[in-house]
Design a protein that fits this description.
5-stranded antiparallel β-sheet, alpha+beta, Arc Repressor Mutant, subunit A, 2 domains
């Protein structure tokens, strides 16, 4: 678990890293696997050590919108809050890239807060980052056109995978943007005509 050694808050506390390894359950997942559903009780906190997760909010009519990504070395702050208050999850967490995840039982989270200041620093840093990302989502939905949001999402996915080729369907993009597939298909064709992307079968290449 070399990735945890790179986390700033854990570098100064080898004991905290050892306790995380000793008390967590290690699991591997494939892209598309759902590790947390909305309205499910949160029994453990995920810490991603490899790959990435997308966190999604789903409306009653089935529409979805992407809230943020959880990358290697990060966790889900909404799992922290929901688990510690014994509330059900307000989001769905789905694997973006094949992932390795440590699951820390929720009862250990509070114990670690009391015993390791670095653990609390880690939670606060994540909370700050997620708050800023959620503000970006609100700003994008309120003030940006869908084509801008689409291009921004493709850029994020490219950065996440470190590749200009993004394997995804128009339907998946529409779900993450909270819009219709026909809208995404039309906008992608416009982006291709303007030379910003190249379209293939279930893949998009950023130019």
């Amino acid at each position: 678990m070399e990735m945890l050694n790179q986390i700033t808050e854990f570098k100064s506390s080898p004991q905290l890293r050892e306790m995380l390894f000793a008390n967590s359950i290690h699991k591997t997942f494939k892209s598309g696997d759902v590790i947390l559903n909305e309205n499910a009780y949160i029994r453990a906190i995920p810490i991603v050590v490899k790959g990435s997760i997308r966190v999604i909010r789903t409306e009653d009519d089935g529409r979805e919108i992407l809230l943020y990504y959880i990358k290697a070395g990060e966790s889900c702050i909404m799992s922290f809050l929901g688990g510690m208050h014994q509330e059900t999850s307000k989001v769905k967490a789905e694997v973006e890239e094949d992932a390795e995840i440590l699951f820390l039982p929720i009862e250990k989270v509070s114990l670690f807060i009391k015993e390791y200041p670095q653990w609390l620093d880690y939670i606060f840093r994540l909370y700050h980052k997620r708050f800023e990302e959620l503000l970006e989502v609100v700003n994008a939905v309120a003030f940006k056109k869908v084509d801008e949001r689409l291009l921004s999402l493709l850029s994020k996915k490219s950065t996440l995978t470190n590749s200009n080729t993004i394997s995804i369907t128009h339907e998946q993009l529409a779900n993450e943007l909270g819009t219709a597939r026909v809208v995404v298909s039309r906008l992608l064709k416009q982006l291709e005509d303007s030379g910003k992307v190249k379209l293939g079968r279930n893949k998009i290449i950023l130019v």
